[in-house]
């Protein structure tokens, strides 16, 4: 799952870098300065942090004097490696080039560079998160003025008061078997509970089928928006053609600090509209949260990746599908959780 999410974000960042405008601003030019005890470590981290900077909308300065900020890293041996399983330590600093002041410094320990694919983005974001947001004074008009080609900062795609949303989903629903009424917590049976004629074990169920979501989002404050969605997905655990429908509400908190991205963590709740007849009892609602990461698409739209996790408080009761041989109990219970992964446009 981690690898799948990594490649999903990799594709998304690659698309973003190709489609975004080039904007020259002093506090968005960054110089990446690194040292390491091994050449391959220096090359690895320099290329990865460069990738993260470009994907976040920064311009890479070729020399320090042209940068607003310096992102500095140093990879060394962990001085406590005899007591600590981590072999290396990477120290990351952020320097304000205007006054040559170090404004942030922290350490991170690791052993193998392969494991750092999961943490490079986090380390870069942690460092640049304290860079102040863009202001009008930061903008430098660039381009061929005589030819009339100008580059200007346009954030209208982040600030619309109403968005219409459509996305393709690949939701995964987890049915976690509950022990109620089952022999040994897992077995359906024939006969008496204390003296059954025969027993058959059940297992957890995972359903992964495609879906689609339509919705609208009202941004009533600069830092808060409210969305209503209609969600459709295929299949129950028996009938792949069944169409599940649900209506949902999301309260989002747009983070607009990054010039090329719109990051929106959110809380969500969904309510089912259609329920398959394989269920004797079904949760009336699910609750959870998610994260939506978007980049500019077209003149004033947003391409986005959306990930959410929802949990039900009540259990789902499923009719016993093997009642001819193992009729007891007539209903088995499952805890129902939902992982939604999608990509769309609004």
Features:
19 strands, mainly beta, 346 residues, disordered N terminus, 46% strand, eight-stranded antiparallel barrel, single chain, five-stranded mixed beta sheet, 13% helix
Report on the structure:
The strands form three sheets. Strands 6-11-12-13-14-16-17-19 form an eight-stranded antiparallel beta barrel. A five-stranded mixed β-sheet has the order 2-1-3-4-5. With 346 residues, the chain is mostly beta strands. The model is unreliable at 1-25 and 136-152 (pLDDT under 50). 13% of the residues lie in helices and 46% in strands. A hairpin with a 4-residue loop joins β4 and β5 (101-110). The chain has helices at 2-19, 39-55, 120-128; strands spanning 29-36, 59-60, 69-77, 88-96, 101-110, 162-169, 172-177, 187-191, 196-201, 205-208, 211-221, 224-234, 243-252, 262-274, 279-281, 286-297, 301-312, 316-319, 331-345. The chain has three helices and 19 strands.
Please outline what is shown here:
This protein has helices spanning 2-19, 39-55, 120-128; strands spanning 29-36, 59-60, 69-77, 88-96, 101-110, 162-169, 172-177, 187-191, 196-201, 205-208, 211-221, 224-234, 243-252, 262-274, 279-281, 286-297, 301-312, 316-319, 331-345. With 346 residues, it is mainly β. The longest helix has 18 residues, at 2-19.
């Amino acid at each position: 799952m981690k690898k799948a999410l990594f490649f999903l974000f990799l594709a998304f960042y690659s698309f973003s870098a190709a489609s975004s405008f080039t904007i020259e601003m002093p506090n968005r030019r960054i110089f990446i300065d690194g040292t390491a005890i091994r050449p391959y470590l220096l090359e690895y981290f320099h290329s990865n942090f460069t990738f993260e900077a470009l994907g976040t909308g920064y311009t890479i300065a070729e020399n320090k004097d042209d940068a607003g900020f310096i992102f500095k890293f140093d990879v060394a041996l962990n001085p406590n490696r005899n007591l600590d399983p981590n072999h290396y330590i990477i120290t990351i600093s952020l320097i304000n080039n205007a006054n040559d002041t170090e404004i942030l410094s922290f350490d991170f320990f690791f052993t193998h560079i392969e494991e750092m694919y999961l943490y490079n983005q986090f380390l870069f974001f942690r460092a640049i998160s304290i860079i102040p947001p863009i202001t009008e004074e930061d903008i430098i008009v660039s381009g061929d003025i005589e030819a009339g080609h100008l580059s200007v900062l346009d954030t209208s795609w982040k600030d619309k008061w109403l968005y219409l949303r459509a996305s393709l989903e690949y939701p995964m629903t987890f049915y976690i078997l509950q022990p109620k009424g089952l022999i040994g917590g897992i077995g359906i049976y024939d006969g008496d509970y204390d003296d059954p004629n025969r027993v058959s074990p059940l297992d957890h169920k995972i359903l992964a089928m495609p879906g689609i979501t339509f919705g609208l989002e009202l941004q009533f404050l600069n830092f808060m928006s409210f969305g209503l969605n209609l969600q459709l997905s295929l299949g129950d655990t028996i009938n792949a053609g069944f169409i599940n429908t649900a209506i949902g509400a999301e309260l989002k908190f747009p983070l607009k600090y990054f010039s090329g991205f719109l990051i929106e963590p959110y809380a969500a709740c969904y309510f089912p509209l259609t329920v398959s007849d394989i269920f004797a009892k079904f949760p009336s609602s699910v609750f959870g949260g998610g994260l939506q990461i978007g980049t500019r698409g077209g003149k004033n739209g947003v391409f986005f990746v959306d990930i959410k996790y929802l949990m039900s408080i009540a259990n789902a009761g499923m009719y016993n599908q093997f009642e001819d041989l193992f009729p007891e109990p007539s209903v088995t219970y499952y805890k129902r959780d939902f992982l939604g992964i999608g990509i769309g446009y609004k």
